[in-house]
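BUG: 3D viewer hangs when loading the predicted structure for this chain

Environment: internal workstation, default settings.
Expected: structure renders.
Actual: progress bar stalls at 90%.

Input used:
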Amino acid sequence: MISLDTNVLARFYVDDPTDREAAKQRPLSAKLLASGKPLFVTIGVVFELAWLVRARYEFSNHDVANMLEHLSGMAHVSVERWESVQKAIEWMRRGLEFADALHIACSTDCDEFATVDDRGLARKAAKLGVSPPVQLLR
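Structure tokens produced before the viewer hung:
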């Protein structure tokens, strides 16, 4: 099994014609992902990939969700804690930021998810009925 770095997936999913290095690296990433070899993606890489494509390439929530669902839909790719990632994608589609959604989704063994000053998160999470519930510290 081969564990993938964020840059491999970014090159696979993003066609950046302004980046000369990307033009060289994208075919390498595509070849590996098309190889059928068993591949593994850590939860950290999922988090970083989602952040990168949002921040640098301005992917929408919809595009991030589709990208992650495509990745997990490849039969030879295993995504660490995929159930948590799926839940985070669902919550992102319903209004949470992906990072917040993933943090909460990975906290299922906890009674609460504490935040200090993110009233928007607490309000949205309560509206969605996420579990564990978000607790706003006061």
